[in-house]
Amino acid sequence: MVKLTYNLGGGLPDPSIFPKKISDIHFEPEISFQELDKELLKILNYRGINAKNEELLLTTGSIQGIYIFSYSFIDPGDKIAIEYPTFAGAIKVFKARNPDLVKLPVIPYYNIEVKEKIKAMYVIPTGQNPTGINMKLEDKKRLLELAEEKDFIILEDDAYGLLTPEQPTLKSMDKNGRVVYITTLSKVFSSGIRLGIMVADKEINETFRKVKENIDGGNSTLSLSLLFESLKDGSFWEGLTRAKRIYNEKKSIMCEALNRYLPQAEWNYPEGGLFYFIKIKGINSEQLLTKVKDKVIFSPGSKFFFDGYGKEYLRLSFSYSSPEEIEKGIEIISKEIQ
């Protein structure tokens, strides 16, 4: 069967990075949650976070973590600062709570000096989605100072942090319980097994647990067992090492393809994450996608701005497609623009 559509859209992981075929992982019907917590704490320690068991909450992916935070903290009319642009899924979750969204510009770089009185802030400081920038250490320190001075809480989304562990998390620097941390394991372990980790001070986490119980009653035992075995036998960490290598190679390949086929585009080489966020003056990326969607898929830039701005932008993912598909997909886009 001939493949007609090249997928440069969502941030699906490359299947070859996964530790093992799911069918090859030993399934233990009864697992020790105490032992599982120990393994999860190792993941957090890898990101510089020294958490306690009572501060942990396993979520059904990072989106559920964002929902739990929103449901617990945000009321209609609250001022919430979110990156501009940012993760499209987070925008949908926040908008459902009817807050007053405040722009936190990230192009060309973060402007964290929010002048308005806000209740909370959402940031992806490592491998920001969609821009791929990393927040500088001095700005992370300043952001924590602002949270204290202006009395707001920070939701740190570390979805891509396992791929760039040299970048310190806000949570690892948090001394006053101002940061709620979330991450996802689907980028490394398996996209089909929706698991994430949420970290917050004990009192806050108790509220989060109650919200989660009302949503789904708990995580799948099968998913937890498969994750536990992969962490125990080391295959999880093997997959992570493989993912870093593969994604760095693909990032370079996409860079070469952009230079070759879209020299008129404006973009920065991503420091982290799985995407290029490019600007092509004069285009409408929503209309462009309509024209090429039977051949190549990408994400229109307007998805990542909460006010519909960004039609000259498009986000291209290098994670899922092969090197040949990346090049072919960008070539198709360039021909349509010409």
UniProtKB/TrEMBL annotation:
Keywords: Aminotransferase, Pyridoxal phosphate, Transferase. One of its GO terms (molecular function) is transaminase activity. One of its GO terms (biological process) is alpha-amino acid metabolic process. SUPFAM superfamilies: PLP-dependent transferases. InterPro entries: Aminotransferase_I/II_large, Class-I_PLP-dep_aminotransf, PyrdxlP-dep_Trfase, PyrdxlP-dep_Trfase_major, PyrdxlP-dep_Trfase_small. Its cofactor is pyridoxal 5'-phosphate. CDD domains: AAT_like (cd00609). Residues 31-333 form the Aminotransferase class I/classII large domain. The keyword Transferase applies. It comes from the Archaea. It holds the Pfam family Aminotran_1_2. PANTHER family: AMINOTRANSFERASE, KYNURENINE_ALPHA-AMINOADIPATE AMINOTRANSFERASE, MITOCHONDRIAL. This is Aminotransferase class I/classII large domain-containing protein. It comes from Acidianus brierleyi. The lineage of its organism: Archaea, Thermoproteota, Thermoprotei, Sulfolobales, Sulfolobaceae.
